[in-house]
Amino acid sequence: MPNHDYRRDLMGSxxxxxxxxxxxxxxxxxxxxxxxxxxxxDDQGGVKLAFRTHSDMTPLQMDDPSAPGFLTVETSNNAVIxxxxxxxxxxxxxxxxxxxxxxxxxxxxxxITFCVGDQRQGSPGVRTQTHIExxxxxxxxxxxxxxxxxxxxxxxxxxxxxxVPGKPEVWKALLPTLRQVGQPFRFIVKPEDRWGxxxxxxNGIVSLKPNRPINGLTDQLTFNDADFSVVLENLVIEExxxxxxxxxxxxxxxxRSNPLRMKQNSAFSHYWSDMHGQSGETIGSGSARDxxxxxxxxxxxxxxGHQGNDFQIxxxxxxxINSLTAEFNEEGKFLALPGYEWSGxxxxxxxxxxxxxxxxxxxxxxxxxxxxxxxxxxSDCHDVTELFDALEGEDVLVVPHVGGRFADxxxxxxxxxxxxxxxxxxxxxxxxxxxxxxxxxxxxGIVAGSDGHKGRPGASYPGDAKFGSYGxxxxxxxxxxxxxxxxxxxxxxxxxxxxxxxxxLDVAMSYDKPAKIFFRNPSLGNDEHRLGNTATxxxxxxxxxxxATFNLDVMAHAxxxxxxxxxxxxxxECIRPYSNADxxxxxxxxxxxxxxxxxxxxxxxxATAEISGATISRIRATNFYNPDQQPKxxxxxxxxxxxxxxxxxxxxxxxxxxxxxxxxxxxxxxxxNLEIALADIxxxxxxxxxxxxxKALVIQRLPEQLSKTQLSISRDLSIPINGDSVIYARVxxxxxxxxxxxxxxxxx
Length: 748
Known about the structure:
This protein is mainly beta. It folds into 5 domains: 8-164, Immunoglobulin-like (Sandwich); 170-263, Sandwich (Immunoglobulin-like); 270-502, TIM Barrel (Alpha-Beta Barrel), CATH 3.20.20; 503-577 and 707-748, Sandwich (Immunoglobulin-like), CATH 2.60.40; 580-703, Immunoglobulin-like (Sandwich). Strand 45 (632-635) and strand 46 form a beta hairpin. It has 5 helices and 55 strands. Helix 1 runs parallel beside helix 2 (315-328).
């Protein structure tokens, strides 16, 4: 049996330069020197230098010394070596690796020098990963005896660099979305660098301008050196209404907060969560402590959880997670939940998040693929149905999601512990998992999270890697911010999901006479209910009425593009806050979709849009989160771009002028083409299927400018004689963000 820990103290040492902190996303050249230890390295032995799978550092290459990512490897004794660069061919989480095979032996003290991003022959070097990390490790393992059993250097001998944020380029202003009149709340202003890292490099004053008076709000905030944010606590509003705050620098607005609604005698307040992410102890980056700290003090979500892959969580790390959640949890201020990701293969159920109400509960692993803990083998649950059985009687929440693996909700579902499904994460947007659950007849709510691997829960930017989307958030409707309230309301599906924005949503289903509104899913044999005329999102309602009235109120930071109203998987209406008469010379071209449900879902697009018979005056990109991969207006008639989609869409708006009667657009991509006369493009989308699951090219015409950020709709909807009415809304904003309400279920 391999002994990966044999005499780590004698396997040598390594160092890396530069050692000064490095800016995230900056171009650098790193020199790592490995010095052979007591055993040297036998011929046919070797060394691996590895990087985390989800580091988005420039891919390495050895073919072009003038191109990015050029790598050279040399030995101090001129020994003959073979060098191989591989991706996902090393044990996780160190998937990116350089393997050096020594065809001649090395003595103790001999050196191997890796120049990662060698700039001596014209290469710009490597772009450092785009997310910050206190200890970004260059992982060195050694095969000293030519047994292909690689032993890691001792931890204190593993070289690392510190990656820090750059200068502010984006400002964020955060308010809660719903509070009761007189209830204190906080306001947060924070800058981010071009890659979405919180930045501490602004020293100066910002001005604040509310749309209505707010008690306790100052006119200015001062940022000092090392301030990542400034927080104003205990603000109070004594009048109902809708509020927002502008942030200005030198009289220019740099940020507008999300909207805040103040209500009198509201049953709920809104609290925001990202309950789904990982740290460096599993497949992510940074420590678990840094992860919880970021959620509480950098992204300022109200609720978080840590969802490491179970087959990487040792008993010791499970204890650490529980200790950290107990430490960071503050009832009324911030909730940290103990949990893990049950990471079974898709054929056995796929990825499911598990959260406990209290610390000290068991972890039920799908496997122990890369851990050595042998204790309590009876707790292993290799199939999700075994997991559901093991969790019977536990005070627990479970949510299936789409990650590397996807959860197959058609394989198994247990309504006792599984109230909702996750529609969006950094991996992409996956309406199909909601539709799968509804087609099976499940009564589920809809949530979102990040599944972030970059240590930034609640503000999870994709960077320059296979994550194609900004991480999602869930808004929880709670009477108080406590674990008890969270679990009670989560089980009643009182929440809505977004692709990362904090918009205000309110759903009310009205009945002409009192109906039964159940506290839990009545299919579980629990008849506890209240009688009422109004239900909210997530409620299950029994009535003898033929119809009910669905009321939706939307208030957002950005203009509303459309609201799609669904009954189950059927879209019953698409509502736009504009008409054909409002359309202008603005055309939106979108690439969307995914190849498949599994790991190979990512679609790479290389595209051009050429206009004939008209010219393009300007363009604007939507959902292009990588600042180095933005669409370019290469001429007055041509736009070029590269992008990735993993579900969801990336779009470019074209403003057209000098339009002739026969003007047309030709969109050419590596996935498919679309050609159409501009006169034939209208309010409804023209879509060309490109294979995959929902991979498509889409074009539509829009008003010159959208301005409506608030919209209320009311619809009378029928209730079937058999089965459920399953009513929910999908809201799309002009800036590409999407939100989903949990359905209201009505039956007779």
